[in-house]
Amino acid sequence: MTTALRRLIWWLSAPVRLPWRAWHAAARALYRTRKRVVHFFTAPAEEHDLGTIIETAAQNPRTLAEHIEAFRPHLFRALLVYLLAVAVAFAFLPQLLAFLTQPIGGLDRLQAIEVTEPLGVTMRVAMLAGFVVALPYIYLELYLFAAPGLHPRTRVWGLLAMPVVLAFFVMGMAFAYFVMLPVALPFLLNFMGIPTAPRPASYIRFVTGMLFWVGLAFETPLILYMLARLGWVRYRPLRDNARGVIVALAILAAVITPTPDPVNMLLVLAPLVALFYLGLLLVRLAERGRASHA
Asked: Who's near 196: CB < 8 A, 6+ residues apart?
């Protein structure tokens, strides 16, 4: 009788007991997650910070083995997400191709002369689109690998920089697409009055290469800031050698620029110089932050 009564009470209390257990388990999981997050952002840096690790590895390459082993799972996850993003990009290939060929007048303006050419074009477009989509997660994996060697305040700023990294990369691609391409394409397609019927492979390689490299160039301020936070870049030497940096940027602009005329080169050089001075400002702020927490 007692056993039957207990079973009856157990079944009758199930609508109340089960939600309570679920809420209790969720609360415990949230508490453990909160504890891990707080520890992640407040734990002191490892005995050897990131800068010291890289300097030691440069002097003794054998020490790289353990760091490569620690980096491997991060690289694997980032590569897996990138491949998934590329697979998703294949579903939007018609829209992506229409967007990329809009500056030239549409996909009909391209003429393939090889059987495998359209396949190579679609792969290149999907790879670029996948990289843009997976960039936040790739940054997150790199951040998680480097975070133990960073100071707590730098970890917070490193995480907050994730949307900024994506925004700068997209701004660089937008600049290449909306500013550089409208100027470069008419010059290339009508050089010396010779009409050109571009191939899909050459045109897509040209456009995706420009979008990718200009997007990376727009990351210059963030790279300078990160190097300054690590103590590898100083404001005063960088400011004193600004002319040499501008000359190097001019060479880089000449390499990126698809045409030999100075107009397109200046279109690339001007934002690079502006980004350098923005990076110089960020280096100054990073030095002040390091000094205040020294």
From this structure: 188, 189, 190
